[in-house]
Amino acid sequence: MRIVFAGTPAPAVPSLRVLAASDHEIAAVVTRPDAPLGRRRTLTPSPIAVTAEELGLPVVRAASLDADAGRRITALRPELGVIVAYGGLVREPLLSAPEHGWINLHFSLLPRWRGAAPVQHSLIAGDSLTGVSVFRLVAELDAGEVLGMREYAVGPRAVAGDVLEDLSGLGAELLRDVVADIADGRAQAVPQEGTPTYAPKLTLDDARVRWGEDAAAVLSRVRGTTPEPGAFTTVNGQRLKILGVREHTADVSLPPGEFAAVGREVLVGTGTHAIVVEQVQPAGKGAMSAGDWWRGLRLPVLRADS
Prior knowledge:
Layout: E1 2-7, H1 13-20, E2 25-31, E3 35-37, E4 42-44, H2 47-54, E5 59-61, H3 67-74, E6 80-84, E7 102-106, H4 118-124, E8 129-136, E9 146-153, H5 160-184, H6 215-224, E10 232-235, E11 238-247, E12 258-262, E13 265-268, E14 275-282, E15 288-289, H7 290-297, E16 301-303
Parallel strand pairs: 1-2, 1-6, 2-5, 6-7
Antiparallel strand pairs: 3-4, 7-8, 8-9, 10-11, 11-14, 12-13, 12-16, 13-14, 14-15
Helix pairs in contact: 1-5, 4-6
């Protein structure tokens, strides 16, 4: 089949590579324009743009799939559109332009966690099972019929970045199989079952640790917002990033948000019991172990701002 692929960030790269290595033709790769990154705000191509150029595939840079981009894509006469984390919506008439329509790889078990940040919301909610879904794009958000799913067990200490990396590989394999089924006329689409939940793009406030929550919820929030947007608290008005936490083997009680050293470990209180802080990043400094940070403070206890 003749395919147009739309994607932007690193999690979409395995899918592009898998399809490029198949017998199908990639007519074009659509990605968002180069974006300013780093302190110097250097214009940098997206991971998908870099990969497409490495593979010798034509690249269409478009900030959105608007009328102009739609005309450029339709002129390529694709038989199938594939989208993986492009960062924009496909609307009519482009939605119906390919003979087989558009399919989307989504990093959740639909209809759970429709939206832009499914992995992060899944971990924040404490899900122990997630997965990937390939579905037909329709006008409603992530609501189309499902063409395939694969489950993924979330490790007890996994963070969002690690889970997303694993799902990008698992999803690429599923996408390859679904595209092959569409080409051979074997694909079977089934309606989504269950009550939808939603996963909007995270805000900075989503990453603020709520120390009054129970320990499990605190651990889940840190895991779900690592590495982006990055879990944090404030201490004496200064932001302190919380890069790593884990359960404490003993049931130690501290007031919510109070840090203290117990033996060789730095603990912080939650709404139930204390947890271990393993790694932090104070404002204006690099990442460091919680022990090194604590020793530099030379304080018996420290409380996060409420």
